[in-house]
Amino acid sequence: NSSLPWWKTAVGYHIYVPSFSDSNGDGIGDIPGIIPRLPYLRSLGVDLIWLSPFYASPQYDMGYDISNYKSVHPPYGTTSDVQRLIDAAHQHGLKIIFDLVVNHTSHLHEWFLSSRSSRLSAKRDWYHWRPGKVDEQGNRRPPNNWMSVFGRSAWQWDELTEEYYLHIYLKEQPDLNWENSELRKAVFDDAIRFWLDKGVDGFRIDTVCIYAKDTGFPDAEISNPDSEFQLGRRYYADLPQNFEYLKEMRAIFGSYEGRELVMIGEYSGSTTTEIARGYCGQNGSLDCGFHKQLLDLERTEVSKWILREPSFELTRFLEVHNEWQGLMDKGKEAWTAVYLENHDVARSVSRFADDSLEMRVASAKLLAVLMATSSGTLFIYQGQEIGMTSMPREWSIQEYKDNETVRYYEAVREGRASGESLECALSSIRKVARDHGRTPMQWDTSLNSGFTSAGESWMRVNENYAEVNVEFEEGNEDSVLEFWKRILRIRKQYWELFIAGRFELFDVEGELRNRVGVYWKYEQEEGRQSGDLKRALVVMNFSTMRMAIEDVLEEIFGGGKREIAEFQLIVSTHPGSD
Ligand code: TEU
Ligand code: CA
């Protein structure tokens, strides 16, 4: 009942298809497995679901390497299964968006097979091909020094036509040449219109900052030339031409009269709030954006795997979160997604708080409060609502399936990564590998936690499913799940405060400092209608958390008429001395 568009007040739920729910006992999550879970998602308070890529793919990058936009990876089901899911979601009052992965295709896509077949192929120019160079010793060298996000050169030599092709990600993910207007039309038809025509309500747009490259391919300034793993620095992001391509893409969405479609871009690591205004501000083409700065919090400029010490600093967390919250200020608006987890990062209770037996539940609740009372479009990643944790530290490297992880580990083991020792690499993998967010959803206490009836699943189920699972937590008022349900109701009830409102995240000085994580201070804006709520003072620490934070919030906001000094919610992620 807010005056805001649906995608601003919606609570989004990110489903990672292979790990959500297996309906046919092959150990792999699938589309038909999602449909029976829709009532659960409704009961949680979700309005929108986002599906990770389920399209035809050889699965080198878990479906972010697409070989056919218009068909479904067979283990996940068929296009008619997807149609059934779209219809079922709408019947349950849920919006549904898909992942749009169009910076690159799989190397097995028919477009690339044609493009690489001959320099004279009609589709040669649909990808970036270059002859490369010869150095003083007469050795062949790539066209420039760009590095892949996943390590090593971003150029792959192709014997057949004796040229290099560009791949910002895996060599199995050749970059599309967006300068080619035929290619753009093919992308708009196959990857966008095909699914909009089936009723999908929009897309989460993968790597939205990098479609345009400087096709002169100049060398970049490389921070650590001998490291195979350059991250953080993007040589090619946010070029002016990129915004032109997104205008064209927006026009496709705009051609669907009467459909309230949403475009939510995934920004790359280096995107700043200033640049984000270009994407989502009043002249931008996107509605909302996922920033990466909290996801990349532990990273150094050198590499994802060379971590800051300490890897988690609360003040930095606050600065980053607060800066992006500032984009929801009146007049400076560039609407932003607010989220702590996805399929590319470890679990938030493990990264930002304390996932030990005694601290996990309270930690998950603290982080839920932070999220539910922040501005922006809120996304919950599957399992976050029940307090799922990263993979146990004692699990062996064999349990890690992500090629980003596996190829890094192999590079270190074979001495091809600059300087890292194998134990240092393992320590980083156990903290920040993307696999931590990909263990199967934990539904109940049956074998494999109800994720699959198969003997084993594609990824090992976390043994803590005995007490971390939907069935156990449903109806248990002290559980993380029931807490999320309540805090989401509060968020919606006070949407003006929490969504359209503006919380200043700030740190405190003085004696609270050692116990304090996060404060909210709500300034009463002139003429704001939300009750007479001025500023609520709720000073609480960890011990209070163990009781019932939502009762405190309910008491404060339930009245709605209380003259309240200042709303300072302390979210301490370290056991405060009671
Ligand atoms: O990720 C974009 C991206 O560059 C980072 O999230 C990166 O994948 C990660 O931080 C590496 O450590 C998107 C998808 O979310 C990711 O799963 C894909 O691998 C990537 O694009 C390529 O499609
Ligand atoms: Ca299955």
Account of the 3D structure:
This is Glycosyl hydrolase family 13 catalytic domain-containing protein. Belongs to the glycosyl hydrolase 13 family. One of its GO terms (molecular function) is oligo-1,6-glucosidase activity. Keywords: Glycoprotein, Maltose metabolism. The protein is an alpha/beta fold and 578 residues long. The longest helix has 16 residues. The C terminus is likely disordered. 1-O-alpha-D-glucopyranosyl-D-fructose binds next to loops. Calcium ion binds next to loops.
Shape descriptor: globular
Strand content: 5-15%
Put simply, the count of helices is: 18
The main pleated sheet reads as:
8 strands, parallel
Question: What level of helicity do the residues show?
Answer: 25-40%
Structural category is alpha/beta
Q: Regions with pLDDT < 50 over 5+ consecutive residues?
A: 502-525, 527-552, 554-578
Query: How many β-strand runs?
Result: 17
Q: Largest sheet, order of strands side by side?
A: 13-12-11-5-2-1-15-14
Mean pLDDT: 85
Please report the distance between the alpha carbons of the first and last residues: 41 Å
Integer-rounded radius of gyration: 24 Å
Small molecules bound in the structure, each named once: 1-O-alpha-D-glucopyranosyl-D-fructose, calcium ion
Protein name: Glycosyl hydrolase family 13 catalytic domain-containing protein
GO biological process, one term: sucrose catabolic process
Domain Glycosyl hydrolase family 13 catalytic: 14-438
Family: Belongs to the glycosyl hydrolase 13 family.
